[in-house]
Automatic annotation (TrEMBL), chain A:
Its EC number is 6.3.5.-. Belongs to the GatB/GatE family. GatB subfamily. Residues 344-517 form the Asn/Gln amidotransferase domain. The keyword Lipoprotein does not apply. InterPro entries: Asn/Gln-tRNA_amidoTrfase_suB/E, Asn/Gln-tRNA_Trfase_suB/E_cat, Asn/Gln_amidotransferase, Asn/Gln_tRNA_amidoTrase-B-like, GatB, GatB_C_1, GatB_Yqey_C_2, Gln_synth/guanido_kin_cat_dom. Allows the formation of correctly charged Asn-tRNA(Asn) or Gln-tRNA(Gln) through the transamidation of misacylated Asp-tRNA(Asn) or Glu-tRNA(Gln) in organisms which lack either or both of asparaginyl-tRNA or glutaminyl-tRNA synthetases. The reaction takes place in the presence of glutamine and ATP through an activated phospho-Asp-tRNA(Asn) or phospho-Glu-tRNA(Gln). Allows the formation of correctly charged Gln-tRNA(Gln) through the transamidation of misacylated Glu-tRNA(Gln) in the mitochondria. The reaction takes place in the presence of glutamine and ATP through an activated gamma-phospho-Glu-tRNA(Gln). GO terms for biological process: glutaminyl-tRNAGln biosynthesis via transamidation; mitochondrial translation. This is Glutamyl-tRNA(Gln) amidotransferase subunit B, mitochondrial. SUPFAM superfamilies: GatB/YqeY motif, Glutamine synthetase/guanido kinase. It catalyses: L-aspartyl-tRNA(Asn) + L-glutamine + ATP + H2O = L-asparaginyl-tRNA(Asn) + L-glutamate + ADP + phosphate + 2 H(+); L-glutamyl-tRNA(Gln) + L-glutamine + ATP + H2O = L-glutaminyl-tRNA(Gln) + L-glutamate + ADP + phosphate + H(+). It is found in: Mitochondrion. Keywords: ATP-binding, Ligase, Mitochondrion, Nucleotide-binding, Protein biosynthesis.
From TrEMBL, chain B:
Residues 1-425 form the Amidase domain. The keyword Ligase applies. Its EC number is 6.3.5.7. SUPFAM superfamilies: Amidase signature (AS) enzymes. Keywords: ATP-binding, Ligase, Mitochondrion, Nucleotide-binding, Protein biosynthesis. This is Glutamyl-tRNA(Gln) amidotransferase subunit A, mitochondrial. Belongs to the amidase family. GatA subfamily. The keyword Mitochondrion applies.
Length: 520, 437
């Protein structure tokens, strides 16, 4: 982790009301792109300019055709965000001359979006959990639009990669009802969690599939907004928080000095943690829209909405309640729910097993492995603990785990049935994860000689007699000691282990010795 | 069947330049859907035809073959005439073919091919058909796929057909009437009724829009129209007067909407992915690559319409221009709908008169700053705004003299029918050729 300079957040200055509104752009998870039948690859490692067809490149004579799946996904997102799905929605062309827009305009929505008036409830307040209160964040608009190509500037050249061109993007616009950077981040985390949970977006924030523009204004007045600034293209929760905190301080200072805040678009420098002027806000004339004549109006029937609603998975709230009903702790539930597909993995593994035990294995072992893996992938030496870095991107997802839920279950069963010790069970799991062993856990345990010996009382007695006969003097000496039983037990335990080459279950042995030594 | 294809319809083996510098030498990597349908049916594409740049123009890019012909349409006379004339030094007293599908119309009129594909946005097939004396058909919006047609104004653009006779025009129509999933505005008309063989027009009502008697309608066109009405009446059709009050506003509405959509559709020509790129971008400007490429690449008429379109879409002018134009368009659609409650099909002139000469145009445009060109579309634009099928039938001619020869300058009448009822145009058109006893 880079050393982060301490921010001076002047708390006593924030007497002005802060109004934060967000425009979130999330890449929709679909098979095909928004207006062409090109595959919608979320993988940035795909060869440049290898995944674009005539329309994605804006070739003359090519036409857009709306991908129904993208519309369905957008409607599902609207339902998840408690919004009203509009019966009719319409696409517009929005003109921006930019190298990365092959058509010379973006196909987007404005007056007739997919949905309006949604909300999400967040727990508002500081880190101190006790003082948190439920707060409703209202969403004004949910719309569909096409993504631009990716442009990279280098030595006076602009390199363009059209793989991203025409990917479906869901734009979610909130009302300016957020009041702090903490609330903003809580809201965004919840939003992302909902989108991921409902299979509406892909998980990788680093690939720019979840971008946020933040609008901030400060006001003294109760009924009037101040002049807002827009901070563009923030992609990590950390930078969103830092950018908002910096911007609040900057605007406060301006207002304290009697300087007006300018309506402008700003960027955020992740190194200095400062926002900077990108451009002054364009005049009206620069914004031009035209109803997209190549695309028909989208009509959504109640039946379609009902069908899509029925396809949504269990809601996050219901899922949380169900997990808590298993007796899992808040912390465990949070950890499981924060990782995409972890709950599904858990359920599969915990079926017919002790749910708490399985949860402990997952939080303790599986998540430790994911964290270590992420840290290694990021080239970081330290193991950042999971709960402090919930937004940190794991380079391995649950689906990429080298172990299935069934195999994890087999490992847990080995320990539960006392065939191997808990410590060795964890060792087996680590070997499967790290060394990608493919044998059954039982086979691995056998190969490593981890299987514990099951011996009956007779055998115990035989070994006991043997040890006693071979170490007569020593035993007599120990008997004379103050804590005779404890010393003897330790001594016999050691001898038992070396006699059985360590394969004896120490608990079994302990139980036997406890009784045996009492008799003598 | 040999067919010419307009220069804005994509073909893999021939250039698709839209007669624009910005697409000079551009060869499309794919065939337009309509081209594919024709090729699959065994048609031979003999070449790409010249056009007004991006389909914007009413006069045409070439010369009207009528300038080379005697008052017969005999191919031999064409050969003789052309061999005697130096085509490289055409004179200003020659006639224009009409635009923008002038190349296609001229090719058919000159018998280079039996039929041709054009495109019709506001009359670009029907106007040259009338000037050149051939059939010109514009379908219901959505009947022919636009996939592969380089867009000018998407909500108005249609592929059109030019044919030397009604049968060849209809043959092409049958071949390319096909729903296309690659075009989201394509309409599946397959369930609609087919053409009927009629012995007369009994039971058919022909509407005559009274507002089409415009100022400036030429005497010979007025005669031609009256003759046409009589001819259909003789075929037992019922003639009724109908009203289209917003005809007078159609041109303004059309040029506003078409320019707005053109500014949109031509935005993609930026010199980055295909076509011409300026060699000398001045890097001190805000958008050097764009402005140089587009200034060098687009001709004056295209630049004029892009600027007009950009203006009408600006936030400050949107409601008073584009908003109003859309309103008028909806009113025109509504008026047509009312007309079709009274009449099955409308008969109108296709043009104000016969084809003008190059010199005549030059005088006019000097007087009026080029706007008079737009007035040529007055009869064709309303059907475009309403998305209705329309067929221009060559009917009658204006006698004139050219190079001391007597010449028949062709005139055309237009049949407009209800949305989706394209075939009725063909059915009725047959009776212009029939001799009624």
């Amino acid at each position: 982790m880079a050393v982060v300079p301490k921010l001076n957040i002047v708390k006593n200055l924030t007497k002005r009301k802060v109004c934060i509104g967000l425009e979130i752009h999330a890449t929709l998870k679909t098979k095909h792109k928004l207006f062409s039948n090109t595959i919608n690859h979320s993988n940035i490692n795909f060869k440049q300019n290898s995944n674009a067809n005539l329309f994605d490149l804006g070739f003359p004579g090519s036409l857009p055709v709306i991908n129904n799946e993208a519309v369905c996904q957008a409607i599902k997102a609207s339902l998840v965000l408690n919004a009203n799905v509009n019966k009719f929605s319409q696409f517009l062309t929005f003109y921006i001359y930019s190298y990365d827009l092959p058509l010379g305009y973006q196909i987007t929505q404005k007056d007739h979006p997919i949905a309006n008036y949604g909300f999400l409830d967040i727990m508002s307040g500081s880190k101190d959990f006790q003082s948190k209160v439920k707060k409703r964040i209202s969403i004004n608009q949910i719309q569909l639009e096409m993504d631009s190509a990716k442009s990279i500037q280098n030595n006076n050249y602009v390199y363009l990669d059209f793989n991203r061109s025409n990917q479906p993007v869901l734009e979610i616009v909130t009302n300016p009802t957020l009041e702090s950077s903490d609330d903003t981040v809580s809201f965004l985390k919840l939003l992302l969690r909902e989108l991921i949970h409902n299979e509406l977006t892909i998980t990788n924030i680093e690939q720019g599939t979840f971008r946020t523009d933040v609008n901030i204004s400060l006001t003294d007045s109760l009924d009037k907004f101040g002049t807002r600034c827009e901070i563009k293209h923030l992609s990590s929760f950390n930078s969103i928080k830092q950018a908002i905190d910096f911007e609040i301080e900057r605007q406060n200072k301006l207002l304290d000095n009697g300087v007006e805040v300018q309506h402008e678009t700003r960027g955020f420098n992740e190194k200095t943690l400062e926002t900077f002027l990108l451009r002054e806000k364009e005049m009206d004339a620069d914004y031009r829209f035209l109803p997209e004549p190549d695309l028909p109006i989208i009509e959504v029937s109640d039946r379609v909405i009902d069908t899509l609603r029925s396809e949504l998975p269990e809601s996050l709230q219901a899922r949380r309640e169900r997990l808590l009903s298993y007796g899992l702790s808040d912390y465990t539930v949070n950890v499981l729910m924060d990782q995409y597909k972890a709950v599904e993995f858990f359920e599969k593994c915990a079926k017919n097993r002790d749910k708490k035990k399985v949860a402990n294995w997952m939080v303790g072992e599986i998540f430790r492995f994911l964290n270590e893996n992420a840290a290694e992938a990021a080239g970081l030496g330290d193991e950042s603990s999971f709960n402090e870095n919930q937004e940190s991107v794991m380079s391995l997802s649950m689906n990429d785990l080298p172990i299935s839920a069934e195999r994890l279950g087999e490992v847990i069963d080995l320990v539960d049935s006392e065939q191997v010790s808990a410590l060795r069970g964890k060792n087996i799991l680590r070997k499967i994860l790290r060394e990608k062993l493919t044998e059954t856990p039982l086979q691995i345990a056998k190969d490593l000689g981890y299987i514990q010996m099951k011996i009956d009382l007779e055998e115990f007695n035989a070994i006991f007699e043997k040890i006693a006969a071979e170490n007569y003097k020593q035993i007599e000496r120990l008997k004379g000691k103050k804590n005779a039983k404890k010393s003897l037990k330790g001594f016999f335990m050691g001898k038992f282990m070396s006699e059985t080459k360590g394969k004896l279950n120490p608990l079994d042995c302990d139980k036997f010795l406890e009784e045996k030594l009492d008799q003598n | 069947m040999p067919i010419a294809v307009k220069g804005n319809i994509s073909t893999v083996n021939l250039p698709t330049t839209c007669s624009s510098n910005i697409l000079r030498d551009w060869v499309s990597p794919y065939d337009a859907s309509v081209v594919k349908l024709l090729k699959d049916a065994g048609a031979i594409i003999i070449g790409k035809s010249n056009m007004d740049e991006f389909g914007m123009g009413a006069y045409g890019p070439t010369y009207n073959p009528v300038s080379f012909l005697n008052n017969s349409t005999n191919t031999d006379s064409l050969k003789n005439e052309t061999s005697n004339r130096d085509l490289d030094t055409p004179t200003d007293d020659m006639f224009v073919p009409g635009g923008s599908s002038g190349g296609s119309a001229a090719a058919v009129a000159a018998n280079f091919c039996l039929s041709a594909l054009g495109s019709d946005t506001g009359g670009s097939v029907r106007l040259p058909a009338s000037y050149c004396g051939v059939y010109g058909f514009k379908p219901s919006y959505g009947r022919f796929s636009r996939y592969g047609l380089v867009s000018y104004a998407s909500s108005l653009d249609t592929i059109g057909i030019l044919g030397n006779n009604l049968e060849n025009t209809k043959t092409l129509y049958d071949l390319i009437s096909s729903f296309d999933p690659n075009d989201a505005t394509s309409v599946d008309f397959s369930s609609q009724s087919c053409s009927q063989e009629r012995k007369d027009l009994e039971g058919i009502t022909i509407g005559i829009p009274q507002e089409y008697y415009v100022d400036g309608l030429s005497q010979e066109m007025l005669e031609c129209w009256s003759n046409g009405i009589k001819k259909l009446e003789n075929s037992k059709a019922k003639i009724v007067k109908v009203s289209l009050p917003n005809t007078v506003n159609a041109l303004s509405s059309y040029y506003c909407i078409a320019s707005a959509e053109a500014s949109s559709n031509l935005a993609r020509f930026d010199g980055i992915r295909f076509g011409k790129r300026s060699e000398q971008p001045d890097l001190t400007e805000k958008h050097p690559l764009y402005s140089h490429t587009r200034t060098e690449g687009f001709g004056p008429e295209v630049q004029k319409r892009i600027m007009l379109g950009t203006f009408v879409l600006e936030a400050s002018s949107y409601e008073s221009y584009f908003g109003k134009a859309t309103m008028i368009r909806n009113m025109i659609k509504e008026e047509f709908r009312t007309c079709f409650q009274k009449a099955d099909i409308l008969l109108t002139p296709a043009t104000i008169g016969g084809a003008p000469t190059v010199s005549g145009i030059k005088i006019n445009s000097n007087l009026e700053g080029g706007v008079s060109e737009y007035a040529n579309d007055v009869f064709t634009v309303p059907a475009s705004l309403a998305g209705l099928p329309a067929l221009v039938v060559p009917f009658g001619a204006k006698k004139t003299t050219f190079n001391n020869r007597e010449l028949q300058l062709p005139l055309g009448l237009q049949l407009i029918s209800e949305f989706g009822n394209d075939e009725l145009c063909f059915d009725v058109a047959r009776f212009f050729n029939k001799t009624i006893l």
